[in-house]
Amino acid sequence: MIRIVLAEDQAMVRGALAALLGLEGDLAVVAEAGDGEAAWAAVQEHQPDLLVTDIEMPHLTGLDLALRAHDAGLATRVVIITTFARAGYLRRALDAGVRGYLLKDAPSARLAAALRQVHAGGRVIDPQLAVAAWGEQDPLTERERQVLRLAGEGVKTADIAERLHLSHGTVRNYLSEAIGKLGAENRIEAWRTARAKGWL
């Protein structure tokens, strides 16, 4: 039996996925979570074979969860199911050790087969995304990404500096670098561009 923790913040989608997976004789959803922190707690408690997670969720993203699982040395393999067909997300997912990346509009039979393949040690990536992922490179450093993400959420420069334990001038420099790399006019335009490409 392949034991699964399912993380998805939309209750209806989560319920549908759990029901579909429950129809498979060899797949068992041992816990469901509606946000990243609850998902992490469930992974620690149940030590599942697979964590099936969305990317964008409250508190911790699917990418954050994948990094935590990787850094903690857990045997749990991570499969992301998302509506976001963004190559930038896929590249970051692969860097985080994600073993599967599928779009939510894939047929349910493909999902079950993909989970079995990942459990057996394989890797499953949506083929269209796999091609796109090796196109445009993400120009942002991790620190630029952190600063730009907070700026896009409306956090003031002084507050970003305090949160990230940086000086006010350093935050301005990171924002200026990110804006320049993305060819944007300002921080909001840079945030929108980076987000659209899956780099945040």
From TrEMBL:
It comes from the Bacteria. SMART domains: HTH_LUXR, REC. Residues 133-198 form the HTH luxR-type domain. GO terms for molecular function: DNA binding. Gene3D superfamilies: 3.40.50.2300, Winged helix-like DNA-binding domain superfamily/Winged helix DNA-binding domain (1.10.10.10). GO terms for biological process: phosphorelay signal transduction system; regulation of DNA-templated transcription. The modification 4-aspartylphosphate is found at D54. Signal peptide: none annotated. Keywords: DNA-binding, Phosphoprotein. The keyword Transferase does not apply. InterPro entries: CheY-like_superfamily (IPR011006), Sig_transdc_resp-reg_C-effctor (IPR016032), Sig_transdc_resp-reg_receiver (IPR001789), Tscrpt_reg_LuxR_C (IPR000792), WalR-like (IPR039420), WH-like_DNA-bd_sf (IPR036388). This is Transcriptional regulator.
